[in-house]
Design goal:
The structure is a homodimer of 605-residue chains. By secondary structure, chain A is an alpha/beta fold. Helix content of chain A is 64%, strand content 7%. Chain A contains 22 helices and five strands. Chain A has helices at 2-8, 24-37, 42-50, 55-58, 60-85, 92-100, 102-134, 142-159, 164-192, 213-223, 232-235, 244-272, 283-292, 296-329, 347-363, 368-397, 402-426, 432-460, 484-496, 509-522, 539-551, 580-588; strands spanning 472-478, 499-506, 528-532, 557-567, 594-602. At the A-B interface, helix 18, helix 19, strand 4 and strand 5 of A face helix 18, helix 19, strand 4 and strand 5 of B.
Chain lengths: 605, 605
């Protein structure tokens, strides 16, 4: 395994698993990259729907953004309560399961797992779009770049990104800073009445839709992508410097203000500049060229956008394995997902997440627009369940002004619930159906897994076990030829059992005679039984013989089949030997009371 | 394995492995199909070379055929001697190895194995060509048809074609009969001065070569494909009715006469009709249409040609596995190739042969002409080695008119040796180089395999073994949790060893405490040792502990690690459990004196 060590680094001690505590500035960088980065594509997605209904329809983009920003304030207010109620970390799964029951909890968990995968895929696709907007020749390689993007993050996470906070602060603040500059300069130019430095590249396409309420709702659904990731703070309260809840709440509000301002600002500026999404350039890129021109500032903006999207994808690489590990500990997923790998990371979860995201990127050709319809359903479903859980939480505990809190959470739950319905309906045929189908499948798998572990626990229970019941022991040594390996196996058999019997399966009369002859010298008093095999099978006569023995055995009798096994110095030398030990083991595996033991015989050089 | 039974049929008893003895007429069908079927393509291959030098060059085809027919008589005469000298069956490998030494024997064996694969590939390609000549629309499916052709034969052989002789007599005699009719009718029409019923389809292509000696030699090399398969009789002398050698010799001569006559006749008729190979129709097909017209007789001719080629391919399916089994018994190939499968056939050999032939068909696009250059090198190399072996044989035994016999074999060896050289040189760049490279590689592999088995035999030898040396026994039971499976494993450990120790690898302090608590109740007096694992590895601390134990052990002490192993009712349920038993086994496999035993714990439903 030395190549694994070389690539991933030496194992890390459990004792090093302490988390660093974060202050507000660092926490903002760590927890808000996912949410903030969505402004890189949310406006574009709204315009993409509206522009099919002509120039007039585009004006609605600002109004839709306003509605989404209102929803944002409601969610921020509501999640502030979650932060205070769950200082240990209140993920949607935990909150929903604790307050609503197992099934809603699992639905939230399924929705979140899908959400994490899509966060990675969408962020990778949007990050690549930011790069190819600036460097158009790379456009044809976008799928490969997206895969590379995911591969790099997965690799970093498998090695264990211990320094998370510090290195992630740079791209997040670079993005916050360069967008602030863009919005300020853009607003100033608008007041000064200056024209765009570079006019927008794309014109309006042909009008294919009329402006209906359905179309507006679809645009709203698309814009909801802006709100993905805002729950991150409430999951990670424990990571804050004390007083944890107050710092977390402050970070949440700060993030909400930045996100809302930027989202509204970008939508408004895009509208005033008459920018629409076009082939090869994102809205942010066009806006950057209109305000800055194609200079250093523009390239910094694009680089910062790509970088924050990378960091956003990385968030999912922390969240997904943490959630699968919680689910595995609750026995809703296989136990292998519960354990830390030797670099102190949940390696299996990381591998599953990156594989799933890569598949999506390949399937949807690395296209952000194609992935977005799958995205928001899961996120908003988790929001709804989490808020509903909080309503129950307040009503149950009845602490302080619980009616007000419950009402706020209920408002949040209702608003996000309506949003889920709108998104699921308006995006159903564009891909949302996949998520609608996938969530029940995941929930079913969780429940089946749970049931399996329940049966296992029941059958492993120690009720009625007599700890000290003695075992009577018979050992069988199959002998195909008398050689050193056989003699070693025989010696071992004699040391573990009182009754030992050697059996030879007669395939070749000359061979059988030879074995019988040699047995007189080397058999050491153990009887040799010859089993006929009219069909030349090694396995059948042996299995039948063992069955015969077991048939007549007493209740506490066990049969051990002792096999010589050749261990060759090189793996390919194994091809030169029959794998009969393996086949015998497989054939006897399902027989209670039978144990198959291989005695390794080691070949040198 | 019930699907395997359903497809391949029930196993057959060893007692049914008796061969039916063949009289001359049936033997001719069984042993000559390979040789006779080559007239279906040999003439065509000669013309294909000559026609590049223009119309005048085509006249040489008759002369080249005459030379090849002379070579044929020499070979028949020489192989008659082999039949008498090796009544047990004198394959080239046997004859060369016995008289010339191991290395020449292995070269012959390598050449023969390649020859068998090519027999299948070429016969399949030529058989498909016979069909597509008659039904041109099938031409584009020739690769698929070739694969199907091979697949059907492989399938038949895996089931065990017990009725070989009888069902193969039909296509062979149909071919012999319809070609006899073709030649007779063609000759009569020539004497009568009648024109062709249908003129040949293909005209001469542009002249691209001048008629050089090299070109003539290349045409000769191509025509040598006619002689492939004539050694079959000498391999199968044992299958004849007594007196075996006389019947075999008679069959050989009869086959030689038919083959020579047909080959010469076809070449001469093709020449008089001005037939050259063309797109989509074989020479035989054009000849058939010229003599019979496109009627019932023509279709019977094509069907019989395809059928005998199928039978010829089938010959290789008998020869290849028989040779690999002989080589495996001599320890030049893995032992798995030496044993009869449960349908009394050498299944592994059949699978390897068909896979190799299918690869060739795909690689060479199902084209006979492309495969032919690879074909004759191996065949003629085996001829040469076999004849040279016979020279040594006569000189060593000095029986009867041994000088005459030796001279005859020497003439055969020289002639075929010259042919090998001519073929290898003139066809080198067309593909013969592959065979020239492959034979040494095969011989190297044979020798490496042999060396491996030699080392194995040496290390398995019983020299210095004390049969009855007692073993001291320590058993270790790794305990991750105290449950029914653990208790069963502990019980087993106590029954096989005097010293038993339980070990727990501390990964989670709460778990460790719980195990220690429960051990007081269920441990049955066995000490529980806690092993620290700072890097959360299950394997490392266990392996280190075992190493410590082995370090201090006495010479006759063994350590058995007894592991509880979960056996689930469905294979996929295995995914819910750590495969740590498997990993522990792998980690301890290479430590002498350590045995790992799994005690299966069976889950219900």
């Amino acid at each position: 395994m030395s190549w694994k060590r070389w690539v991933l680094g030496s194992p890390l001690e459990t004792a090093r698993a302490h988390e660093q505590r974060l202050g507000v500035p660092l926490a903002l960088a760590v927890f808000s990259s996912d949410a903030l980065s969505s402004v890189a594509y949310a406006t574009e997605e709204i315009l993409l729907v509206l522009m099919t209904a002509g120039a007039l329809a585009l004006g609605y983009s600002v109004w839709i953004s306003l509605v989404i920003t209102l929803l944002l304030s409601l969610l921020v207010a509501s999640y502030r309560q979650t932060v205070h109620a769950y200082p240990e970390g209140g993920g949607s799964y935990t909150v929903a399961r604790e307050n609503l029951g197992t099934l809603p909890g699992l639905v939230a968990a399924g929705a979140l797992l899908i959400d994490y995968v899509l966060t990675v895929a969408v962020s990778a696709a949007a990050g690549v779009a930011a790069v190819t907007s600036a460097v158009p020749v790379l456009r044809e390689h976008r799928v490969a770049m997206g895969l590379l993007f995911v591969g790099i993050i997965a690799f970093g996470n498998l090695r264990g990104l211990r320094e998370s906070g510090r290195i992630f602060a740079v791209p997040t603040y670079a993005f916050i800073g360069s967008l602030a500059l863009l919005l300020a300069a853009g607003t100033w130019r608008w007041f000064a009445g200056l024209p765009a430095v570079e006019p927008p590249v794309a014109g309006l396409p042909e009008v294919t839709h009329t402006l209906t309420l359905f179309l507006l709702m679809r645009a709203f659904s698309s814009g909801c992508a802006a709100l993905t990731g805002i729950e991150a703070v409430s999951n990670g309260v424990k990571a804050f410097e004390p007083p944890e809840t107050r710092h977390a709440a402050a970070t949440l509000v700060l993030m909400g203000i930045i996100l809302g301002t930027y989202f509204l600002g970008i939508t408004w500026l895009a509208h005033t500049h008459g920018i629409v999404p076009g082939e090869g350039q994102t809205v942010i890129s066009q806006l950057g060229r209109a305000v800055f021109g194609t200079g250093a500032l523009y390239y910094i903006l694009q680089a910062a956008t790509a970088a924050i999207l990378l960091v956003a994808a990385n968030t999912a690489f922390a969240g997904f394995p943490r959630l699968t590990s919680i689910l595995a500990n609750d026995r809703f997923l296989p136990r292998q997902l519960a354990t830390l790998g030797d670099r102190l990371v949940f390696s299996n979860g990381i591998l599953i997440l990156s594989a799933a995201a890569m598949l999506l990127i390949i399937r949807y050709d690395g296209d952000t627009h194609a992935l977005i319809p799958l995205y928001a359903v899961g996120v908003f479903l988790a929001f709804t369940l989490s808020q509903s859980g909080m309503v129950m939480h307040h009503l149950r505990l009845r602490e302080g002004r619980y009616r007000l809190h419950a009402a706020l959470s209920a408002a949040g739950a209702t608003a996000t619930g309506v949003a889920v319905a709108i998104i699921a309906v308006t995006k159903f045929t564009n891909g949302a159906w996949i998520v609608v189908v996938l969530i029940p499948i995941l929930v079913f798998a969780f429940l089946r897994t749970h049931r399996h572990y329940f049966y296992v626990r029941t059958q492993l229970s120690l009720v009625d076990v007599e700890p000290d019941r003695p075992i009577r022991h018979t050992a069988i040594v199959p002998v195909s030829a008398v050689n050193r390996a056989t003699v070693y196996a025989l010696r071992y058999a004699k040391s573990i059992a009182h009754e030992v019997e050697a059996v030879h399966i007669a395939l070749d009369p000359r061979r059988t005679e030879q074995v019988q002859e040699q047995w007189k010298v080397w058999g050491g008093g153990v009887p040799l039984r010859i089993l006929e095999s009219p069909y030349r099978s090694l396995i059948r006569p042996l299995v039948d013989h063992v069955d015969d023995l077991m048939h007549g055995r007493r209740r506490n009798e066990m049969v051990t089949v002792v096999l010589p096994e050749f261990v060759t110095a090189h793996w390919w030398e194994g091809l030169f030997h029959n794998q009969s030990a393996f086949l015998i083991k497989g054939a006897l595996l399902f027989r209670p009371g039978v144990v198959v033991t291989s005695i390794p015989f080691h070949f040198k050089r």
